[in-house]
Amino acid sequence: MKYIFVTGGVISSLGKGLTAASLGTLLEHRGLKIAIQKFDPYLNVDPGTMNPYQHGEVYVLDDGAETDLDLGHYERFTQCRLSRLNNLTSGQVYEKIISQERRGDYLGKTVQVVPHVTNEIKKRIREVASSSSAEVLITEIGGTTGDIEGLPFLEAIRQFALEVGGENVFFIHITLVPYISVAGELKTKPTQQSIAKLREIGIQPHALICRTERPLGKEVRQKISMFCNVPLEAVIEERDVEHTIYEVPLMLQREKLDEIVARRLRLPKRAARMAPWRRFVRRVISPKRKARIAVVGKYMDFQDAYKSIYEALTHAGAWHDCGVDVVNVDSEEVERRGAARQLRGVHGVLVPGGFGDRGIEGKIAAAGCARRARLPYLGLCLGMQVAVIEFARSVAGLRAANSTEFDATTAAPVISLLEEQRTVQQKGASMRLGAWPCKLARGSRAAALYKQRTITERHRHRYEFNNAYRRRFEHLGMVFSGVSPRNDLVEIIEIANHPWFVACQFHPEFQSRPNRPHPLFRGFLGAACAR
Ligand code: GLN
Q: Using one digit for the tens of pLDDT, what is the confidence trace for 120-159?
């Protein structure tokens, strides 16, 4: 087994996750089996209780783990199917150690960061390594070098390298080389200092990935190489991509990152065959046509909040040879100005998941506008719930219809708390989470798109369609095209007599892949293109 560790310096948001995922892409295209995981130094047990402004989207895995959005990049860029083992936080490490201490596992001893915390971290690396049949394990360390909370992780990987032998380990450090326009120069000092910090801990990187807006140039590369004690060829330039993040693996291949890694780790010499990937990128960059898709949510100025949704739209777009212009529509703006005005000129409306009542009436209005204007509509999780509320109010005449999440005493609780949620007190990891099966109704749009009778999709919700209203809505033209086989929960609704109106209780965006767009996104975009 070979181990690659990816750390980051200078600032956060350098795209470490994307870079780690892209290296994974290259290694897989060289025919290697890889595994990939992320360590997050914060004290939350998982990001499930954080707000999207703090953390971006919460990415949900098959096993129900609520994880960092970088795991989304890992699954989209590689063939890996991840589990809760693949995202370790300080919160998990401490939770485990403290409960062991209370049980008496350390009787007589002082429990300390070194060796107890570092041992737990190393144990996780071994666990992920041994539970996969991979040849290479990539581990990304979240946070920025120099952060207090990141230290135990860096100490752990230093020790780990010693234990498995330096020749089996490759350290990559991602850094920022800023361009200072008044001086007209790229500056290397932050990089030097970041490397100094790493060396202080005892880690000497084997390659440096320099995030930059401008080409690095020979001199800058030489300077970085000398000051940071990294071979010249291992000073890798990673420019801001022009069009799409899917260019990153190609960019890193041009810089020979995979070759450098393969040489040191003595991996087979095969070149990465990137032709299919390149074709996909080309379709993303220069599509034949364009569609404008409104995404109606409340974190619109914040790219990371709906990450997987934007990616799923891109995948479906590439499939239809159609570029997607996302129109960010703030649902509170819809409340102020009206849906018709905010949605003018779009070819499709997508309402994503969400929690809490801020902007909820705007989302309901957007669903109503799409229904009446016969605009293709895709509702995801909360996006299904608002579509149901809208239908109840406007078509079934239930004026007071609402979700009990927003109005606990509503006279028409068309969306209500799941039975199993009634006794739940704790907030963390307590929703209906992860992959659950769903049976599709013959003849439905969903069945035609999936071309399957039973599907599995990932969930993250507490509320659910109230089956007491099913009959009545069915008579009025709502189609219940997907239900869970075990407890008869509504998973997908459609509206008959509408060009394309589909909404689901699960999150299809988590299973979309570049060359394998999700059926619902594919159908939605097809309908938007037709418009
Ligand atoms: N707030 C809703 C629920 O808990 C929807 C959740 C979501 O969109 N992920 O059911």
A: 999 999 999 999 999 999 999 999 998 999 999 999 999 9
Q: Report the distance separating Cα 412 and Cα 407, nearest Å.
A: 10
| 507 catalytically annotated | yes
Residue 462 beta carbon below 6 angstroms from any ligand 1 atom: yes
Domains of the chain: 2-278 (3.40.50.300), 289-530 (3.40.50.880)
Question: For residue 423, how far is its CA from the centre of ligand 1 (angstroms)?
Answer: 17
- Residue from 29, 55, 507, 518 carrying the catalytic annotation: 507
Which residues lie below 8 Å from residue 525, measured CB to CB, with a gap of 6+? 291, 293, 313, 316, 317, 319, 320, 322, 324, 348, 517
Span 381-436, pLDDT tens digits? 999 999 999 999 999 999 999 999 999 999 999 999 988 888 888 898 889 999 99
Of the residues 460, 504, 507, which should be mutated to test ligand 1's pocket, given the most ligand atoms within 8 Å of the CB? 460
Beta partners for residue 185, in sequence order:
180
- In three-state form (DSSP H/G/I as H, E/B as E, the rest C), the secondary structure along 246-274 is HHHHHHHHHCCHHHHHHHHHCCCCCCCCC
Rounded Cα–Cα distance for residues 146 and 199 (Å): 11
Does residue 460 have its Cβ closer than 6 Å to ligand 1? yes
For residues 112 and 98, what is the distance between their CA atoms, to the nearest angstrom? 11
